[in-house]
Amino acid sequence: MNKINYSVTLGNNVVVLIKTGFNGTVYGYENKYSNLAKKINEQYGYSVVVADNPYDGTDPIEDAIKEIEVRISKVFIIYYMGVSLGGSIGAWYGKYYPQIKRMLLINAPLDINIDKTINGLEELKCEKITIIYGSLDPSYNYVKEFKFNKPINIVIKDKMDHNFSQSMDEFMDLPFEYLLK
């Protein structure tokens, strides 16, 4: 199992768990995850845990739960934000963690394991689930086929690619608009 690195910003027992994309770091491009953690903590007082993603096929959320228990509290709720493969991981494994109350999945790749992703989304027991795709993301065309038996908010961001390279500001606003409200 690959070692997962964490960046922890301490706050209260509401934890925003951010899972980066494949081989993503806890900092992200231009320090976006560190900046996001600071902003969330300052505005809401939430703890923020950013987990990098050396995904090896095992459940990395279990490792994150242990990290939260050690660093923050044994009693907590999680708002999960997954980016790219981090979004897929949330869909695949989130159903096993009742602590996850809300989920925001951004540009989770659908060209691999689409059935596993759709089935996982159906089995999530979150109070709020939002999936976001940029209209220029390679998985955008698959999203049009989604039909769920439960309320899942599907948001399309026009002219955004997989990395939101056209507007980092818009990316940084996503959790405030779709996860934390």
Characterize the structure shown:
With 181 residues, the protein is of the alpha/beta class. α3 links the parallel β4 (77-83) and β5. The longest helix has 13 residues, at 32-44. It has 6 helices and 7 strands. It has a 7-stranded mixed beta sheet, sandwiched between helices.
CATH class: Alpha Beta
Question: What's the alpha carbon Rg, rounded to whole Å?
Answer: 15 Å
CATH topology: Rossmann fold
Quickly give the CATH architecture: 3-Layer(aba) Sandwich
On the 0 to 100 scale, the average pLDDT is 94
- Approximately how much beta-strand content do the residues carry? 15-25%
Biggest β-sheet: count, sense, barrel?
7 strands, mixed
- Helix/sheet category: alpha/beta
**Per the principal axes of the C-alpha atoms, what is the gross shape?**
globular
Give the low-pLDDT segments: none
Helical content (DSSP H or I, runs of 4+): 25-40%
- CA(first)-CA(last) distance: 35 Å
Number of domains: 1
What is the topological layout?
Blueprint: E1 6-9, E2 12-19, H1 32-44, E3 46-51, H2 60-71, E4 77-83, H3 85-93, E5 100-106, H4 114-123, E6 128-134, H5 140-143, E7 153-157, H6 168-178
Parallel strand pairs: 2-3, 2-4, 4-5, 5-6, 6-7
Antiparallel strand pairs: 1-3
